[in-house]
Design goal:
The protein has 5 helices and no strands. It has about 150 residues and is mainly α. It holds the Pfam family DUF4260.
Length: about 150
């Protein structure tokens, strides 16, 4: 009788870490490219359609971070890097890429053609993309950054 022993080959921790690092860099680069595209589209809409389109793009570019104001009075109790838990649902809702993308799809097929809407949605998606490119994502219910 011959006994064969099989040993499981486990990946080295370094190779796993390197693969994750490469993947993270690729994803962050893709988010950066997305931010450039949507930011350029927002600016182009402003150039083509005037001040109101610029205003909508700027407001919707800044608006997702205004969700911090929901829990301004709780900020003193939060630890460094923590968003007060009261603001987390608002922050996460404003920073989900699916929301403005879904609205963009609806706008595309709706019988409405008003340039400030496209500029606003472009600014919003640019904001989310820029956050992801810099490593900021959604928050846990306790208010900390989710692990990637």
């Amino acid at each position: 009788m011959s006994a064969t022993t099989t040993t499981a080959i486990r990946p080295q921790p370094r190779s796993r870490t390197r693969a994750r690092t490469v993947t993270r860099r690729f994803v962050r680069t893709a988010w950066a490219a997305s931010a450039l595209f949507w930011g350029a589209l927002a600016v182009m809409e402003g150039m083509n359609h005037g001040a109101l389109a610029y205003l909508f793009a700027a407001v919707f570019f800044i608006a997702p971070d205004l969700t911090f104001l929901v829990a301004v009075r709780d900020a003193r109790t939060a630890r460094p890097g923590q968003l007060p838990p009261r603001a987390v649902p608002f922050y996460n809702a404003a920073h989900r890429a699916l929301v403005p993308v879904a609205l963009l799809v609806i706008y595309t097929y709706a019988p409405i053609t008003w340039a400030p809407i496209l500029a606003a949605l472009s600014g919003w998606i640019a904001h989310i993309s820029m956050d992801r490119a810099f490593g900021y994502g959604l928050r846990t219910k306790e208010g900390f950054q989710r692990a990637h």
